[in-house]
């Protein structure tokens, strides 16, 4: 099977499961490097196709990477600003030298129902989403009994293993309802009634955000100061979206059993705090 | 969204009509509108840029004292009032975001609807009520000041690390520094980021000789281009799946680069302090002070 044939099979399977290709083809979910018509020796799924992941892919005997996030350092993956850049050049050269083919699987994962990224994150955290109307994309979890924000943080940090997480809010506040985000796909505190805490990936600080996206940390701080404690837990992009690509690996194995598929997490890019 | 523009229109005539309307102003005290007009004149800006302008309060309010802050949180409003200040110049909006929609990628009208919904929220209403109770006005001042003093934000942050002599590079400034390991710079950074928003990429023993300083939020294209010459990007906030991936790839590519992200608010504090100093001669006779935002983030001990 070739990468092009595998992607066609993925798209057909997604359509059969209720996620047809959109009228406007995704600009993200395309081949980024390599020959899509070679024979696949093995497939790696990952949250982000870093150079380290490409090396581990080759060491594992695989030649196709299916990545959730960008390869060339910008969401659109257009490398027009990287001409002459030695890091970009080294990445492309490594992929070409080792015959690595990279395909991005971003928009499709979020189009699937359930969204494969949220499915992975909820499973990792051991949480079950409340029943919700179909238009509510971001899951909400009502905890069986209230617990402190500090205890929530200990739980999610233990489950994800991240060290560079960030938390806003009063550690002692009692939490009953949690809205869950992944990557940069963050719910607001208004996604559903009575949200105490958001646990997600990353969110911009400050007022560079354009509404409806807003500064969740400042909102939580103000809400707490004004008498309604709210909290925000940011686990990082890979702390929330790597794991969804394990769901994708399991899914591809179910309809392409003839090729080896493994999940290789990109891992947290940040170093351990001082 | 319309309220933003209404307040800006109010501001446009504040310098004339409001000074007559206010009895205290008539006694010679500067009003909020007049103070902003003086600041605009000093900046050389004829009108508010982007989402700048009076966002909470009244243009004809006499000014007792001016506070400068990065984010006009409820705690900042209270701290300013406690110091006798009733006008806050803030880098960020009290509404937690910009109201603009052009190029946002969101459906038309969603920004305006979200702004209206957020303003109806008890949190924003509570903050607006607090501002009214304290008699504090909030003016967002950011882009026009940045355009007028393009090196001030980076130079003041760099100075906290003991660096000077920077050159303009993209969004920020480039500094050649006395070689130091990343770990030493992280220790310096941790004294600015007091509660836990500090993040880094790179080996702690990596020697740093040049730094690209971008307070606030670093954008991918100028940052990546700057990192072709700099060992380290020192910034506030950035997208993890763009610049961070580039820095993470640099060591395996044989061209190690490093990143220190202080958190947006923390990275802007030296700039806030400098703006307060700059405002003093612009508003003679008015007490001006900087109010520090606490780092909004923490980690487990």
Describe the protein in words.
The complex is a heterodimer of chains A (274) and B (301). With 274 residues, chain A is an alpha/beta fold. Helices cover 32% and strands 16% of the residues of chain A. In chain A, the strands form 2 sheets. A 5-stranded mixed beta sheet of chain A has the order 1-4-3-2-10, sandwiched between helices. In chain A, strands 5-7-8-9-6 form a 5-stranded mixed beta sheet. The longest helix of chain A has 14 residues, at 3-16. The mean pLDDT of chain A is 96. Chain B has 301 residues and is α/β, with parallel strands linked by helices. In chain B, 43% of the residues lie in helices and 19% in strands. In chain B, strands 5-6-8-9-10-7 form a 6-stranded mixed beta sheet, sandwiched between helices. A 5-stranded mixed beta sheet of chain B has the order 1-4-3-2-11, with helices on both faces. The termini of chain B are far apart. Chains A and B meet through helix 2, helix 3, helix 6, strand 6 and helix 7 of A and helix 6, helix 7, helix 10, strand 7 and helix 11 of B.
